[in-house]
Amino acid sequence: MPKQKRYAIVLAAGQGTRMKSMRHKVLHSIGGKPMIEHVIDHLNTVGIDRIIVVVGSLSEQVMEQLGDRVEYVFQHEQLGTAHAVMQAKYLLADEQGTTFVVAGDAPLIQPETLQMMVTQHEREKASVTVLTATLENPFGYGRMIRNAAGDVDRIVEQKDGTAEELAISEVNSGTYCFDNQLLFHVLSQIDNKNAQGEYYLPDCVSVLKNQGHKVIAFETKDPEEIYGVNDRLQLTTAQKIMQRWILQYHMRNGVTIMDPENTYIDADVVIGPDTMIYPGTHLHGKTIIGESCILGPNIQLTDMIIGYECHVFQTVATSSKIGPETSVGPFAYIRPNSDVGSHVKIGNFVEIKNSQIGDYTKVSHLGYVGDATVGQHTNIGCGAITVNYDGINKHRTIIGDRAFVGSNVNLIAPVKVEDGAYVVAGSTITDDVPQNALAIARERQIIKPEYAEKLRKKFQSEKESKK
Description:
Elements lengths: L5 E7 L16 E2 L2 E2 H12 L3 E6 L3 H8 L4 E4 L6 H6 L2 H4 L5 E6 L7 H13 L4 E7 L8 E4 L5 E5 L6 H4 L3 E10 H8 L15 H8 L4 E5 L12 H21 L3 E2 L5 E3 L4 E2 L4 E2 L3 E4 L3 E2 L4 E2 L3 E4 L2 E2 L4 E2 L2 E4 L2 E2 L4 E2 L3 E3 L4 E2 L4 E4 L2 E3 L2 E2 L4 E4 L2 E3 L1 E3 L4 E2 L4 E3 L9 E3 L4 E2 L4 E3 L2 E3 L4 E2 L4 E2 L8 E2 L11 H15 L2
Parallel strand pairs: 1-4, 1-6, 4-5, 7-11, 12-15, 13-16, 14-17, 15-18, 16-19, 17-20, 18-21, 19-22, 20-23, 21-24, 22-25, 23-26, 24-27, 25-28, 26-29, 27-30, 28-31, 29-32, 30-33, 32-35, 33-36, 34-37, 35-38, 36-39, 37-40, 39-41
Antiparallel strand pairs: 2-3, 6-10, 7-10, 8-9
Helix pairs in contact: 1-5
């Protein structure tokens, strides 16, 4: 028997005025990426053949974010959720299969929940399955009304419910699985005779029930999953929920987090077992951390790849690689497009930018290595810098293997220091240094005996003459 096709309609047409933002509500981030990205990712995990996003206000922002990964339909007037879904009719009405309807501002519903929900829906051949939760405070949610046998009868919205109905604690999450053809058949039968004057998607439940179709509910085990976001306060709450889940996931998979209240990890971060994370650690984007690392305190890593057994502390690093058994920090700055090798030491107040640092090389303190290729087993001394910018163009510095660059050296790019070369401290190097050569480029020291006292008297006299 061929696998039943699955579709999804994501509702993202609302203005989101309570966010008080020029950015579309679903594009506000939790867990390191826009809310709607979580929704799309979770749907893709379940296995969706086509995803249709309903857009309206600020549609260009949503379309720029999602690109051609989804299809789009427009809801030009905000006439309710049923009206929004109807906009996808010309794309899906003739298709057979299961259709999810989900909100773009409900990023916490987990793929495991969606999978269990759709499995039950298809196994029981239901016309619609409603994702529900039982809440201590159900205010604002539609209530699930069941009959005497415990079967789903209808959904009543907060503004339309009686006191008895509003006392019910099982609520509608706003996420559904529909038989696709029945969905578009029943949408045309929905009216707007309610307190809001809108076409409610939940009304499909009672219409299908009255027509003899099977209506069921799937209750999530974790009520926090259905939490939606309408304003900044709810955005912060959703962020805290997701952050707690992320940290728990990593701790269950062998990561030690010393202070979860002061550790921040995005949803797409990967961390190897036996890594220890100290407070003040921020891991963003698609950062990948190897096993048995020590991270923090006080670091910010964004889109980084970190090898095993690295120690990174009091450091900011972005869009770069750090090899195994390398130490970085304190107060180091790794800028984009850098590739730091294994067994390397990047020390205090060192900045690396768009550079490759070979294995076993040391840049221990107070240095800048920008637009450079540095070989293996090389030492770059305190205060040494690659002078890569002439005011118009950036130029590259190449330093070979087993080279020594002394303290307070300026390497004026483009320049090459070849294998085994030795650059004496305090030198300003403008020409290439051959293999195994010694380079010294500084003024000869001059000593003037007893002149220091004369100079002090001169300065004192000039100071008094200005009074």
